[in-house]
Every structure is written in C-alpha cells, then in structure tokens.
C-alpha cells in the first residue's frame, strides 16, 4: 500500500479548527473560507435581546467557557441585506462606468445624515427604582428597546436607514458610561466627522443629563490643515456650546513611501501624541477649578519630556489602575447627580467603531493599555483607567447610531468588518469616484477604456498576484477587501468636506490657525507644500500599530501585506483584453500612499 503523505502545518491547523467547532456543536466549511466567516457570524449563540432572523451577528471571537468575559457579548449586530440587493450591487459594479464626482459632492451636511424629522435618536434607558429586581429591569429595558425599533422603522422606509447597532447589550454599555461620566469625550474621525456625531446624543448629554461634551476630531494627521480648520469651524457653528479639540496619536508620520511609514510604526509612540494638552484645557474650562487637574498637567509634561529624551515611553514608568466593571456593579446603578464626586473627574469615551478611540486612550495614558485594531467592535467590555488620582477614563465598545448615510460610505469609514462583506466592489467604486484614481488613469491610459469597480479590483488582484485556489483566476473579492483596508487605514484617503468648503477654500488655506494645526500634525510648511493632493497623500491611519494584526483578516492567511504591491512589481501574467497597462503600475508610490 502506498504511504500516506504527512499532513502539512496548514492541514493540521484546519483539522484542529474543525475539531474545536464540532465540540461547540458547529458544522460547515473551514475557517479560511469566506462563506465560513459568514456562517460563523450567524451560527453562534449570543446574549442579545434582539433575537430576530433579520439580524446578522458578526465579528465572532474565540472564547473559552472558563473565561471571565464573553468577547461575543458586544459583537456587532446589523440588519441582513437581501440577496437581491447584494446581487444588484454586484451587477452594477461590473457594468457602471466610474465617473469622477464634483468637489461639491464631497461636501456633507450633518442635517442630511441625521434629519431631525426622521426620529434618528438612540434607545434610552427606561426609568427604574431600587425595588425592581434585576430580571424585571432587564425585561423593561428589552421592551423599551423593541418599542424604539418599531418607532424607528415606522418613520423610515426599508433600505433608507444605514447599518446600525441592534445589540441591546452594547447600548446598555453606553447607558452606563453616560451615567458614570462627568464629561463625555465624543471621538470622531476627522475624515468624515458628521457620519459619527449623532446630534441626538449631544442634545441628550447637554440637555437631559446636564453634562458637558468635548468633540475630539481624531486622526488629524490624515487631513490637510485647511480641511481640519474648516471642519472645526463647521461643527462649532452647528453646536455653539461644544468644546472642540483636534487630536492625532501619530504626529509627524512620514508619507513619502508606505514602507518607510511601516518601519516607523513598529513601536507606537503613545507619549508623543498631539492633542492631550488641548483636551486638558477643555476640561479645565468645563470644571472651572472644581477638580484639581494639576497632576494631569504634570503627567502630560513628563510624557513629553520622556519622549523627547528617550525616544520612547517607559512602559514601567507609571502604573495605571485599570478596572473591569461587572454586571452587578452597572445594571443597578443610577445616574449620579453629583458631578466630580470625591474630587475625581470621570471622562467617558464614546465613539463609532474605527474612530481611533482606543488610540486616544493609550495616548492620554502615555502607553499602551488598550489593544487597538481596525476591526470594528474590537473593544469587548466596559473598563476604566485612572490617568491620575483625580482623573479617570471610562471606555465603551464602539457603537453605530442609525442615520441616513450611504452604506458604501459607512464601509469606507470602517464600521463594518471588511472580511465579512458580501459585496465589497461597490464600496471600491464609491472610493474611486471620490479620489484621484480616475484622473490619474485618464492621464496615462487610453481614453477609450472605461473603468468599472470590477476592473479596478481585477487590476489590483493582478498587481498583488491574488489567485483563486481552484481555477487560478484573479481573486477579485480578496483584492476588493485589500483596497478597502487601505482606505480604512488612511493609505488611500477619502476626506469629506463641510458644506461650502469649495467656495471658501482659499480662506481656509490662509487661516490664522493654519500653523497651529501643522504643529499638531508634526509637519513643516515645506512638507505641506510638496503637492496639491493632500487629501490622498496624508499619513497612515492611527487605528492600528504595526505589531497589531487584523483579527478579521480571513483572506490574508499567507501573511502578505498590502504594501508589497506598491514598491515591488510582480511578474505579470497575460493581461485580459482591454487592459493595456495595470492601473497600479500607473500609480506611483506617493499616489498610493
């Protein structure tokens, strides 16, 4: 009898995974399959109170029953899309010729995203008293949440709402953070802040709770300075009493080549962030001397000195007390009427997935205390950190509020795990129509060739050498995922603009605060003047240091990296008809960066 070939490491890994799934009662395809990732998101049981067949439960994480916390308790729950809708978008991605949109279409009004007449609020915690049992309280919260969903859908026709969170457990975490905090940090991505700033939340904080909020425009390194200033002034005009600060966890990142940036990011310099002192000043304005914040100011100064002299922060220099909040401590807790209790300022950190919330916390602490990832829903449970004896941070899992934003734009904003998308091509097309891709192609390629979203993905698959396992065709799905990850990380950067930006652009480019923003970004005047395409030449996203691997990367099992295709041309196969030159050979490194 012929001897059996020994199993490869990859085969052994798959067999082990199958055995684990069988122990949990799972069946189906292997973990590397795209269908398997979808199935994993729908098979597993969870503790959500929104159990319906119309909800897709995604972002499944490995979990031991003996573990203290269930990481899947707060995983993302979105409404399922119909097969007809998905197939329609796939067909459109193959057929629709991409056309560059006007600058005016990049301008977004917050009132169009969150129209007040559509009732796009968020579920509120119902009233309760200490005589209620825990079970009665949970049932009341579940009923209130179902009533909220019924009201929301009655005022918004099908397919008009964006993806939004359907997991009641995650909304409960928001309630706890709002109740425990004295000041709320509302963290948004500067590339598209109006997508992630629900006015209903702001009005609830300042009106019903009578608390103050600070808007943190994060990832300021990914936008040109005039656009940062424009967004800051627009948000101030819409919300006059809102404190607004700009922030970046990675100032001064070089962006001449992608490879250079990745070498610089192997050690995250959390103590070198731009913006902590501005958050401190905003808190000083709000507290008005009722809390002693001198220890926080001294900590920021020490972190800056340590960074300047040592080149990196000493992780053991200062201990940070971290607390995990248990259910019993949170579920039967009432909103504190006393602000700054015991002389302590409690800051609540709230934001959508992928706005860089964990990076902001790490930067405020001065070292890494929260793991960061581009994966939406990465923060798994409520936790608190003491910056100093008088300043405490409360972290909350990322939450997606209901809105009327385009779902393709939501995906580019990073609120949906890329590896679990059923149809990524339309989002790639949306990106191409709003960046410089098409203008570069038209300058270099034949004017007769019309690009579709599918063509763009196929060209990237060819450039990267992505092949399907059986037929060895270009793996277009994997290529689309790769491009979307680059967009989320800020390497292919799409920056939206406030209304009227095109008309007032010259005013913002000469604004008196321009130099201050450039200092915050860690850039010089010469660097900003190297080109007009600042929207696409900005640095890498502050969401994920180099040592952090994307936990959603089902499609990148071979361990390769998106940057490979930029600097190292691959051996080309025979090109399909119509492809005279691969579009990514046309694009230079700086354009891709």
TrEMBL record:
Domain of life assignment: Eukaryota
Compositional bias segments (type: Basic residues): 1-22
This protein's record includes keyword Phosphoprotein: yes
Classification via Gene3D superfamilies: P-loop containing nucleotide triphosphate hydrolases
Compositional bias of kind Basic and acidic residues: 37-46, 565-575
Positions of region (Disordered): 1-71, 521-593
A molecular-function term among this protein's GO annotations: GTP binding
CP-type G domain sequence ranges: 171-402
Keywords in alphabetical order: GTP-binding, Nucleotide-binding, Phosphoprotein
The UniProt record lists the keyword GTP-binding: yes
Any Pfam family the entry gives: MMR_HSR1
Acidic residues bias (residue ranges): 533-564
Function: Possible regulatory or functional link with the histocompatibility cluster.
Name of protein: Guanine nucleotide-binding protein-like 1
Source organism of this protein record: Echeneis naucrates (Live sharksucker)
Lineage: Eukaryota, Metazoa, Chordata, Craniata, Vertebrata
